Automatic annotation (TrEMBL):
It comes from the Bacteria. GO terms for molecular function: glycerol dehydrogenase (NAD+) activity; metal ion binding. It comes from Pantoea coffeiphila. Signal peptide: none annotated. Keywords: Metal-binding, NAD, Oxidoreductase, Zinc. Its cofactor is Zn(2+). This is Glycerol dehydrogenase. Glycerol binds at residues 122, 172, 255, 273. One of its GO terms (cellular component) is cytosol. Binds 1 zinc ion per subunit. Residues 9-155 form the Alcohol dehydrogenase iron-type/glycerol dehydrogenase GldA domain. It catalyses: glycerol + NAD(+) = dihydroxyacetone + NADH + H(+).
Length: 365
C-alpha cells in the first residue's frame, strides 16, 4: 500500500535584516534559549542576536560549537543545555552546526530554531541530521519526529559570507531534482519514509529551474555582497526548496557519493559539502546514462560558479583504484541512499563512473 508523507518546518522567514526579528519569533517558543554557534559566527552576529533577544526578554546561554556533527558533540551540548534550564535550542551557522542543534533539541524534546548564516546547504528545514565520526567520516542519518519549529534566514548576512559557500549551496540544491527523479523512477521511499508526493516533486523541480535561471547572476551579486531579487530567489531555492524537495522526494546517488568521499584521507576534506555533492551529481548522471549534452550543461554551469568537475579539483587526481573502490563501497552501503538509484550497482560500476566524470568534463568546451 502506498503511503504519501509531506513534512516541513512550522515557520520559514527570509529577508534582509531578519536577524533583528529573531527575539520576537523565539519568544513564541520559549523564554530561555540555548544558543549554539562556532566562534566565527558568534563574532559576526552575536551582538545583533543578543540585542534582539534582550529586547524580547528572552534569556539565553551561548555555547561554542566544536566543529563536527558527531555523537560526542551532541552528547556534550545536550548535557550543557539541560543544565542551563533551556526552553528552546537555537543554532546559528552552517550545516554541521544546524544538524547538531537539531539532535540536541531532540535529546531534550524541546523546540528548535534554525538560523542559517550561509545559504550553503539544504540542512536547515529538514527533520534529519547527518552524523559523522569525530574525525569527519560519515556514519548515519538521524531522523526526528518533527521539522524545526522556526527557520529564520537573513539574506544580508548570507550575502556577506564567502561566495564560495553560496555557490556550494547552489550545487547542493542542483542535486535535488536529479535525485528526486531517480527515487520516483525506482519506486523508492523519500527521507520521510513515504512515496514522493506531487508537492515534493514539484518543489524539487522548481528548485532546479530557479537555480539554473538565476544562479549565475545571484552568484555574481553575492561576490559583491549585494542582495538582489535573484539572490533572494536563490537563497530560497538553496534553503527551502532544496530542503523540502530532498526530504519529501528523496535522495539517491549524489549525496551517497558525497558521503563516500569521507572514506578517504587528504585535501578533499578541505572542500565544502556542496562542492563534493556537485561531483556526486555528475557521477549519478553518468550512472543513469543521461544524454551527453545534459551532463555537459551541468558541467558548464558548475564551472561558471567555480564548482569542481574534475578529480584534480577534488584533490583526487592521484587516488588509487583501491581508494576509489573504498569511496564507492561506502557510498553503496546499506545505510545510504545510492540503492534508490539502482540496487544492482557494484563498487566497480561506481568507481568507473567517478573516473568517467573526470574524462568527460575535460572534454567539454
Amino acid at each position: 500500500m502506498s503511503k504519501f508523507v509531506f513534512s516541513s518546518p512550522r515557520k520559514y522567514i527570509q529577508g534582509a535584516g531578519m536577524i533583528t526579528q529573531l527575539g520576537e519569533n523565539l519568544a513564541d517558543l520559549g523564554s530561555s534559549a540555548f544558543i549554539v554557534a562556532d566562534k566565527i559566527v558568534w563574532g559576526l552576529i552575536g551582538k545583533q542576536v543578543r540585542e534582539s533577544l534582550t529586547a524580547s526578554r528572552v534569556e539565553f546561554h551561548y555555547e561554542e560549537f566544536n566543529g563536527e556533527a558527531s555523537s560526542n558533540e551532541i552528547t556534550r551540548l545536550a548535557k550543557l543545555a539541560k543544565s542551563s534550564g533551556t526552553a528552546v535550542v537555537v543554532g546559528l551557522g552552517g550545516g554541521k552546526t544546524l544538524d547538531t542543534v537539531k539532535a540536541v533539541a531532540d535529546e531534550l524534546k524541546q523546540p528548535v530554531a534554525i538560523v542559517p548564516t550561509v545559504a550553503s546547504t539544504d540542512a536547515p528545514c529538514s527533520a534529519l541530521s547527518v552524523i559523522y565520526s569525530d574525525s569527519g567520516v560519515f556514519e548515519s542519518y538521524r531522523f526526528y519526529s518533527k521539522n524545526p519549529d522556526l527557520v529564520l534566514i537573513d539574506t544580508q548576512v548570507c550575502a556577506r559570507a564567502p561566495v564560495r559557500l553560496f555557490a556550494s549551496g547552489i550545487a547542493d540544491g542542483l542535486a535535488t531534482w536529479v535525485e528526486a527523479q531517480a527515487v520516483k523512477r525506482s519506486h523508492s521511499k523519500s527521507m520521510v519514509n513515504g512515496d514522493p508526493t506531487i508537492a515534493g516533486l514539484a518543489i524539487a523541480e522548481a528548485c532546479e529551474k530557479t537555480l539554473l535561471t538565476y544562479g549565475l547572476s545571484a552568484y555574481e551579486a553575492v561576490a559583491k555582497q549585494l542582495v538582489t531579487p535573484a539572490v533572494e530567489a536563490v537563497v530560497e531555492a538553496n534553503t527551502l526548496l532544496s530542503g523540502l524537495g530532498f526530504e519529501n522526494a528523496g535522495l539517491a546517488g549524489a549525496h551517497a557519493i558525497h558521503n563516500g568521499f569521507t572514506a578517504v584521507d587528504g585535501d578533499i576534506h578541505h572542500l565544502t559539502h556542496g562542492e563534493k555533492v556537485a561531483y556526486g551529481t555528475l557521477t549519478q548522471m553518468v550512472l543513469e546514462q543521461r544524454p551527453d549534452e545534459e551532463i555537459a550543461r551541468y558541467v558548464r554551469f558548475y564551472r561558471a560558479i567555480k564548482m569542481p568537475t574534475t578529480l584534480k579539483e577534488l584533490h583526487l587526481e592521484n587516488a588509487s583504484w583501491e581508494s576509489l573502490l573504498k569511496i564507492s563501497e561506502l557510498a553503496n552501503s546499506d545505510g545510504d541512499t545510492l540503492k534508490n538509484l539502482n540496487p544492482n550497482l557494484s563498487a566497480e560500476d561506481i568507481a568507473n563512473a567517478i573516473l568517467a566524470v573526470d574524462t568527460f568534463s575535460q572534454s567539454v568546451k
